[in-house]
Write a structure and sequence with these properties.
Number of domains: 1
Shape: rod-shaped
Helix content: over 70%
Number of helices: 2
Distance between the termini: 19 Å
Structural class: mainly alpha
Order of helices and strands: HH
Strand content: under 5%
Length: 71
């Protein structure tokens, strides 16, 4: 589970970085070249972060169940 959590944490960090970088390009305005692709990249990064959060939740639930079983 440690490796799964670490992978999710890394994906969360990467997704956040991707979102921030795309948001900076979007903030330049619609006249900027690549505006539409930056918006699409923001949406993709959002989905990446959402997926990573779900993995973290799943690991958390699994660890909680394991602790309950051992108690």
């Amino acid at each position: 589970m440690d490796a799964t959590f670490n992978s999710a944490a890394q994906a969360l960090q990467q997704g956040t970085t991707n979102f921030r970088e795309a948001a900076e390009r979007v903030s330049s305005g619609p006249a900027q070249d690549g505006f539409v692709s930056a918006v699409v990249e923001m949406q993709s990064a959002q989905r990446e972060v959402e997926a990573a959060v779900e993995v973290v939740r799943a690991v958390d639930e699994s660890l909680g169940r394991l602790i309950d079983v051992m108690a």
